[in-house]
Amino acid sequence: MMDRFLRNNVFLRILAIVLACIIWLGVHAPQDNTSSSQSQSTGVTQAYHLPIHVQVGDDVVVSSMSQSTATINVTTSILNLASLPAEMLKVQLVANAQGLGSGTQVLHIAAVDMPNDIKNYTLQPSTVTVALEKKVSQAKPIDIEINGTPATGYALGQLVLNTQSVSVSGAKAPVQSVSRVVGTVDVSGMKSTDTKIVDLTPVDSHGNTVQDVDISPTSISVNVPIQSSDQKVTLAPKVTGIPAPGYAVSGVNLDNEQASESGLPSSSLPKTGLVVPVDVSGLSKTSTLDVPIPLMQGMTQITPSSVAATVTIEPSSTVTFNQVPVRVRNATSGTKVTLPDNPTVDVTVTGPKSIVNGMTAADVEAFVDASKLKLGDTSATVAVQVPQWVSVADLSQRAVNVQVVQNG
Fold first, then answer.
1. Cis (ω within 30 of 0) for the bond into 245?
2. Which of 234, 351, 365, 406 lies 20 to 30 A from 374 at CA?
3. Which residues pair with 330 in a beta bridge?
4. Contacts 24+ apart (CB under 8 A), 294-297
């Protein structure tokens, strides 16, 4: 049936006239641009939430604010809407408190660095209430925390800071809550000494960051010494225990006088040597003992872990030296110590026969240590010095009379 209509010339002419009318009306119909024109003329409003910066003098600080942000409502044309966010990045909201003293103040908020083409904007709120306090400053200690460990075979030495404290300033309450200022040094994988710049953070006694204070300086330089973890340490034998009755120790020799340790820098090693206890309990003849080398706190390893200690044992002997004079040692420039009674003591010593039997009175010195006395003291303990491996078995008098007066 459709084919019959399409072959009908009358129908096709009528359809062509209808289509022509529709096209004409579409081209010549009046267009209403009222909505678009009105939008461009009245503008579009955008809201931006910005922090409030309070400008104060050098001697006061802001201890509290009624609010920390304000809203700026900006009206602009729809054509400028796309570029507005970028232009608003440089805008600041400022409340000027310069020249004002301590107390509560109501300040007007001003928008500065607004885009030149923005003439229409409002602030909500337009004022801010602030509490101003006199600025206080205190010196606080620096605590450096260590992260990580040096590379294998290396150890961390003593850190050297270019300053030991920093100044913390602000309102009284937050400044007083700062217990220390911390920084972190990462030594992970380090193989050589380096100087690092360390940022500092004020914290309270619980380790929480304290806000609203200023620190000066905000960072410090820290020298981080890294050295080989294998350090040479001298071994110092120390006799413990007592040999069998009638015998004495006359010498101890180690087959190694040094060992290599890991974990402690050379600056932390004892200058007198690492003490190696040698237990001589019950020995009645010269013996060689396998003695473990103890680790000091901070040491991770020591090589060798033990040494052979040869302990020389011989029969003991006991001798008494009578009327050994007591002298004054270690006199100071500020005091004068005298012994009014010119005292003497009888000293009984015991030790290896080869040493004791060869001793004379000159090998025994009895004395009082003046460095341990103070003005007004009237009595002092008697000390006795004897040769190595010899000990004092008895002393006829443990204390003597002294006079301690101001020198000069």
1. no
2. 365
3. none
4. 295/261, 296/261, 296/264, 296/269, 296/270
